[in-house]
Amino acid sequence: METILVLAQVLALLSASALCIYLIAVLGQFKKDVSELNQRAKPVLENLTEITEKLKSAAGKIDDQANIVRESLQSFKDVADNVVLFERRVQERLEEPILQVASIIGATVSSIAAFFQRYREQ
To answer: How far apart are CA 84 and CA 44, in angstroms?
Structure first.
């Protein structure tokens, strides 16, 4: 019985040793695969970094151009507002004297008409 127990222990130890050797081989292959993946992924990651930098640069340039367009539109709006204000001032300055002259002429014509109407009535 002891012999069977010793034989079982030897068999278990041999199995554990074989499992350890197999795991060492698998881990060695895994290390090789990870190393190969690292070598192949490195250029891709470098290209991705370069692409990201170019995208950042392009986005910055687009943002700058959008700001230029926005400022240009604001300048056009300011000019248009100034033109409208100038037009109002010119209109006020021209209309007021014209209206005064027109009211004077209207009053004069009314007075003359009233004078002639009284003259006819007499």
So the answer is: 59
- Structure-block tokens of residue 76: 């056009």
Query: Collapsing DSSP states into helix, strand and coil, what is residue 122?
Result: coil
Rounded to whole angstroms, how far apart are CA atoms 70 and 62?
12
Residue where the block lists tokens 């005064």: 100
Give percent of the chain above pLDDT 90. Answer: 51
Residue located via tokens 């003359």: 112
CA 72 to CA 59: how far, in whole Å? Answer: 20
pLDDT of 2 over the 90 cut: no
Identify the three-state secondary structure at position 1.
Answer: coil
Q: How far apart are CA 40 and CA 32, in angstroms?
A: 12
31 is written with which tokens?
């290390």
What pLDDT does residue 122 have? 65
What gap in Å lies between CA 3 and CA 16, rounded to an integer?
20
